[in-house]
Structure formats: structure tokens, C-alpha cells
Amino acid sequence: MTNNSSVDRGAGITVWRQIMETLKADIIGGVFEKGSRLPPESDLAARFGVNRHTVRRAIAALTSEGILRADQGRGTFVASAPLSYPIGPRTRFSEIVSGQHRAPSGRLIGSSIVDADAFLANQLGVPLGVPLIRVETLRVADGTPMIVATSWFEQSRVPNLVADYAENGSVTKALKAAGIEDYQRKETRITAELVDAQDARQLGLALGQPVMVMESLNLDDSGKPLQYTRARVAADRIQLVVNGDG
């Protein structure tokens, strides 16, 4: 653990949030491993040069995010580090989550048939007005909501996608059921915005919290556009990692 960690009182960011982000960085960096006990509040207060109330607020925020847990009479422990989420040609939520010894799951939260507007027609390489399947999904790791995503597919290529996804909670498996064995990520564009009310309910976030927005395009084996997705990611639960070939 870093013994001398200062906070910048003129940074325009509240002191407790600076402490929260520093502790989160420690957890991501392996300074505090999963299951390890956090130092006492008095030690953390001395480390940051603040009172215990300020430290307690930072810990409470990390606890509400599921990163820390408080065991009565025993102390505060690291529940889980933010999920490391590589962005590359083969970005698969289930594989990423299970590879970090967590349990992935997916849930269909909405679907509809829409006509391709100019933007979606361009992304998917289809004529204007072609019927598309629009699906809203929630991706979860160890019971914690991580990503709300809206995806569009050409309906004629995957007519049973909604039912197949609802059954197994996996886009990859649903596409295989349609005869599409594999796909590759062409590009991912990452921005940020404040969470809206609907996504806040799904992700368990407070209004006004930031989410990362990942807009991505997947291609099938022949290089034809297959899936356009706009995903909203809980920024405090996932650390995006852009690979060199991503």
C-alpha cells in the first residue's frame, strides 16, 4: 500500500471521491486482492490526511458498488475488483467474465421490429427501410449488472434471434442457432454520458452517474456487417482494456 497518498483539495473533485478512486485503483492494481481486508479507517485517514468520516464515505461508496463488503465486527473486505474488459476483434462478454472466475449471465429486457433508418442502414449495409430486429439486453457478472445494450440485426438473417437469446442468454449461441458460427469486431467507439432513468434502473445506478458508451460493429466470417450495438457500461464496475490489435 502507498503510505503517502495526498488529495488535491483544489482539484474540483470532492476529497472522498478522490479517496474512493485511489482505493479503487489499488484494488484494480492488485494492492488489495479479492478477499483481503482493508486497513482500519484510522490508518486510511492518516494515509490521506483526512478525518475518518471522509474515509467512511469513500468506503460506503465502494461498498454500494459491490467492490467492498463490510463484515460486522471483522472489518471491510474486497468483494471484487472492477471487471477487466478487453476490447479487441473477439470481444465476448461470457468468455471475458468466466475467464476472471465470475459467473456471466444475460437477460432479454425488450425487443421489437423496426425499419432501418439511414444510420442503421449504413452501419449494417442494408437498404433503407429493411426490417431489423432490435433487442435490449442486460449483461450480468456474479449477479451484478454490468452492461445494458441495444443491438440491431437484419431480421431475415436471424429470424429466431429473440427466442434463442431469451432461452440461453448468449448472443454468440443465438447466432450459432441461425447458422452464424463466428463473428469479428470491426470497430468500437467509446464515449461517455450521464445515465438516463431507464438504464439507471437496470444497472442499479443513481441518476447523474456516468456510463461509458460503446458503439460497436461486428462482421460475419465473410466480412458482411452483422450486428450494430450501442452498449451502456457501468463505469465504476468495468475497466476497459484496448488491445494492441483492437
From TrEMBL:
Keyword Transcription regulation: yes
Keyword Plastid listed: no
Origin: domain of life: Bacteria
UniProt xrefs under PROSITE patterns: HTH_GNTR (PS50949)
Annotated HTH gntR-type domain residues: 13-81
Cross-referenced CDD domains: WHTH_GntR (cd07377)
InterPro entries reported for this sequence: Bact_HTH_transcr_reg, Chorismate_lyase_/UTRA_dom_sf, CP_lyase_PhnF, Tscrpt_reg_HTH_GntR, UTRA, WH-like_DNA-bd_sf, WH_DNA-bd_sf
Keyword field: DNA-binding, Transcription, Transcription regulation
Name of protein: Phosphonate metabolism transcriptional regulator PhnF
